[in-house]
Write the structure tokens for this entry.
Amino acid sequence: MKSSKPILKALLLLAAGVLISASAVAQKQLPNVRVQTIKGAEYPVQDCLKKGVPVVLSFWGSTCKPCLQELDAISDVYDEWQEEAKFEVVAVSLDDARSSAKAAAMARGRNWPFTVLLDPNNDLKRAMNVTTMPTMFILDKTGRVVYTHIGYTPGSEEKILEIVKKLK
């Protein structure tokens, strides 16, 4: 039975690590950071809140297949969802300065109906404690984070509408 103690200890350490990393992701408020539009203009991320509606903030990368699947799935239902609840979707590319032009071209080519921003220096990524792509935050109209989701599986985007409809 002595051999189970190291395993138990390892499991407890793993569980503690998961809890710590989950809490590190839990940013409470949209920070005051500047990013770029896909045309290269500087953009204060707080401007996402100007319309006074909830914001879905999705971090993605041009080489991240689950990221693209998630954003394409949201794009497919975006107009329909807008009839049910008013909210903004902002997709923030985490591609670095060398590949941000590729990300901008990819977003334009996919005709996503939402705002696409670039974070080539990872300023917003660091401020929001994003460690994995895709990572999604839902913000209320004041910029307070009310929901965080990491990863993507088909159908998981349905949770977005459910949460946004509850935010007034």
Q: What stands out?
A: DSSP finds five helices and seven strands in the chain. Confidence is low (pLDDT under 50) at residues 10-26.
